[in-house]
Amino acid sequence: MALSNYLDQLTRFSDWFIPADLAANREQREKARLFLYSHICGPFIGGSVPLTIWLFDETTDFRVVTLFASIFGFWIFPPLLKMFGRYYLLSIVSVQNLIFCILWSCYFYGGLSSPMVAWVLVIPLLSFMYVGSSARMRGVLIGQFLVNGLIYYTLCNWFTSPAVTMTTGALEALGIVSTIAACAYVTMMALLYATALASQVELQSEVDRHLATAADLLSATEDARRSSTAKSDFIARMSHELRTPLNAIIGYSEILLDDSEGDPVETRDLNRIREAGKHLLKLVNRILDLSRIEAGRMEKSSEWIDCGQLAQGVVDDLAPAAAKHGDKIICTVEPGLGLVSTDAHKLKQIVGNLVENAVQYTRDGEIVVSVSRAESGRDDALRIAVRDKGPGIAADRLPHLLNNFDVLDDDKGSADSGGAGLGLPLARRLCELIGANISIESKVGQGTVASVWLPRGGAATLGEEGDFGLAPPQQDIDALASLGAAMRATQAQRSRVNDQAAVG
Length: 504
Hints:
Number of helices: 17
Distance between the termini: 88 Å
Largest sheet: 5 strands, mixed
Helix content: 55-70%
Strand order of the largest sheet: 2-4-5-7-6
Radius of gyration: 43 Å
C-alpha cells in the first residue's frame, strides 16, 4: 500500500510537467511519464557512482565534477518539457547526455574494463521506453548510439587512455556500487513500466467494457425506435377501424334522440352516450394525430387564411362547452393583420386544443383569445394567445406540460372532463410541423397564458411587399376570405352527410 501511495504521489508530481497537448493523448502521456520518472529518480541512483569516485579516488579533479554535473543535469529536463514541450527532441538530448555520462566514466576509469560498462545496457532500455512504437525515433536513437560508439572507439585508438588514479580495491568497490546502481535503476524503470502497462491494460479493459455497454444501449435504443415506429405506424393505419364504430355510436345516439319523444330520462341517457362517444372520438383523433406525426405520415398544406376569423370560429364552436362550466369566451383581433399563409386545419387544431385546455381548467371565469402582432422584439411573428383565469400552474410543472399524457394532479377539471394530457402535447407537435412556436406562462392563483407564434417566414402578413410579391387589393383579400369560409362550410356539410350515410 505504501509503495502504491509513493507511485501515486510520483505520478501526480510528474503529471505537472506534462504539457496539455501531450496529456491529451493517452499513449504520449504514458511515454512522458516514464521519461519524467527516469529524470526525477535517476540522478539519486546514478549519483552514487561519482560519489563513490569522490570518496575513494585520491585525485579529485574535473573528471568527477563533470560526471556529477552531467548526472544531476537530468533534473533540468522536466522543467524544459513543461516550458517548451518538444518531447522527442528532449528524448534525443537526454539519451545523448546518458551516453556521455557512461562513455566519459569508462574512458577515464578503466576503458572497456571499467566498472561503468554495465550502464551501457541502460541506453537501449531507456531509448525504447521513451519513443515507444515509433520506428523512426528508434532508428534515430540507435544511430545516435552507434555514432557515439564510433567516436569513443576512435578516441581510444588515437589518444592514449589516461592513467587510472584509483587503487585496485577502490575500483572493485566502484564496480560493486556501479553494478548495484545499474541493477537498481533497471529494476526501478521495469517496475514503473510494468505499472504503466498494467494501468493501460486496465484502462483498455474498462474502455472495452464501456464500448460493449454503449453498443448494447445503441442496439436497445434502435430496437425501441423500431418498436415505437411500428406502433405509431400501426395506430396510424388503424384510423378507419377506430373511428367507424365511434361514428356509428354517435350517429345512432342522435337518431335515438330524435325518436325519444321528449322522455327526460331517456334523453339524458342518450345525451350522455353521445357526449361520451364524441369525447372518446376526440381522444382517438388526438392519439392518431400524434401517432401519424411520430410515424412521419402527417401531411401539411398551406393556404391564405384570416387568423382572426379562424380564432373566432374556434370560439364559436367551443362557447357551448364553456357555458356548461360557467365560462365566457371572448375573442379579440388586432385590426389590419391581413391574411397569413399556413396550414389552416392544423392551426385550428392548435388553437382549439389551447382553448379546450383553458375551458377544462376554468370554472365560472373568462377566457380571452387574442390575435395580434407580436410584442416588441418579436415583430417578425403573429401571436395567438389564450388567457384564462384558472387555478394556474406551479413553475416546476411548466416544463412537463407539453409532454404526452401529463395532466395536473388533484385537479377537478381533469377528473370532470376526463383530461388525458394530449391537447398541449399535440399542439406542440403540430406547431413544430407548421413551423410555429408555442409557449406557456402561468402563475398559481392568477391563471395561464398559452401563446402560439407564427413566424413571418412561414406565415407572412399581406399588406406590404415581401417574399410573396405585391399585396393584393383589399377587396380581393375579402373575396378570398369569403370563398375560403364558404368552401370550409361546404366541406363540413359534406362530412356530416357522409357520416350519416356511413351510419345508415
